[in-house]
Amino acid sequence: AAEKLAAAGARVEIMTRDRSFAPEVMAMSLTPSMRELQKRDVTFTVTWRLEGVRRDGNELLAIIGSDYGGVTRERRVDQVVVNHGTRPLDDVYFELKEASSNRGEVDYEALVAGRPQAVLRNPEGRFQLFRIGDAVAARNTHAAIYDALRLVKDL
Question: Which pLDDT score is estimated for 23?
């Protein structure tokens, strides 16, 4: 969205409450986007968050706050685009769930104890299935690998 708005001539500011911009995006993926956004003079603001937006005549008044000290600011803007992440990519998981031996179930006691997953809900199932990575929520590659490692390290 930011690239499209900036390409159309809008003055764009990307704001995140995080201490760095897009920490969940790997450097190889982020570089092309950053290159395009910086060419278009997009502003990057970290450690601030949008607390609210209200109409003020024909304008929008954005209320901006911080997690670091009770500071708030108001800013007049033309438009606000909010990104709350993406929906999980869980289609394949749900297509396979009923055919799996565990029907997607995790034995959390075994997981915490470091024991193999042995849930059997479908004796006809020929594979185990676990919902990890982007099938749960958008996350970085390292988080997905860690999810998998915790579940399959004891196979």
Answer: 67
Positive or negative torsion for Cα 82, 88, 89, 91 = negative
Residue stretches of the chain with pLDDT short of 70 = 23-28
Q: Give the closest residue to 15 by CA, choosing from 42, 48, 37, 41.
A: 48
Distance CA 147, CA 144 (A): 5
Residue 42 DSSP SS3: coil
Q: How far apart are the first and last CA of the chain?
A: 43
Q: 0.85 cut: is pTM over it?
A: no
On whether the CB atoms of residues 153 and 111 are closer than 8 A, the answer is no
**Domain annotation for the chain: domains and CATH numbers:** 2-77 (3.50.50.60), 91-152 (no CATH)
Cα angle 1-66-30, degrees, rounded to a multiple of 5: 35
Name the H helices within 2-155: 2-7, 27-39, 91-97, 108-113, 141-152
